[in-house]
Write a structure and sequence with these properties.
The chain is α+β, with helices and mostly antiparallel strands. Helix content is 31%, strand content 26%. It contains 6 helices and 8 strands. It starts with a helix and ends in a 6-residue tail after the last helix.
Length: 226
């Protein structure tokens, strides 16, 4: 009887220790994630290498979707860089990356058919903004820093842009490139100025689909030509 009692006590103790070990490990992980804050977050910078288009027709041909839209929300996801889909057991740790998702209310569609709202995916996070959201999504990975694209333009909620996008089957579309794939159309000057290379403007892209498209865009946005 005493032997049975000792065995039972041993098993109960082992179970308690095992439970304490699990709880302690979970607590350690939580503390590790919670120790990263806006005050001590670090950044890793990536440089993108996308094609740049010298002619409007080349840019249009390379784009799967061309539209104007207003940014309404910003959120974040962890995705497998190779597939642009949520990570699986087969994903390699080095390929799992933070991505920014911009929700866009569609205003005018020039190429392809899309719904009234679309999510646009950009690899990397955002520096000095939405830090709590990014840290929460990163979890323990936040200790390694937030990766941001060095040449990514600032995209603001409430602003209207002309987007030229690529689509990979089953994934959210992404920008054709950072210099020409997104162009602010908040005022007339921003629509006629060529990109930083001096090749293409928003007016060039919209007018490519017909002069009436540009006229309609001016009218809808209350823009007046100089």
């Amino acid at each position: 009887m005493r032997i049975k009692t000792l065995i039972i006590l041993f098993l109960m103790t082992a179970a308690l220790l095992s439970g304490c070990s699990t709880d302690s490990e979970s607590l350690s992980k939580d503390l590790s994630a919670n120790s990263i804050s806006e005050n001590n977050v670090t950044y890793n910078y990536s440089v993108s290498d996308y094609p740049v288009y010298k002619k409007t027709e080349e840019l249009i041909s390379a784009s799967d979707i061309v539209l104007t839209g207003r940014v309404t929300d910003v959120s974040f996801k962890m995705l497998d860089y190779k597939t642009a889909l949520p990570p699986t057991e087969e994903s390699e740790e080095g390929d799992i990356t933070l991505c920014t998702i911009y929700t866009v209310e569609v205003i005018s569609i020039y190429k392809d058919n899309v719904s009234e709202s679309i999510n646009i995916r950009v690899a990397g996070g955002i520096k000095d903004k939405y830090l709590d959201q990014q840290i929460q999504v990163l979890g323990e990975r936040a200790s390694k820093g937030i990766t941001v694209a060095e040449d990514m333009p600032e995209i603001k909620i409430g602003e209207t842009y002309l987007f030229s996008l690529m689509v990979f089957e089953g994934t959210d579309p992404c920008l054709l490139n950072f210099e020409q794939g997104i162009i602010s159309v908040s005022d007339f000057n921003s629509t006629v100025v060529k990109d930083e290379f001096g090749y293409i403007s928003a007016k060039d892209i919209i007018s490519y689909f017909g002069n009436e498209k540009w006229t309609a865009f001016e009218s809808e946005n209350f823009l007046e030509a100089e």
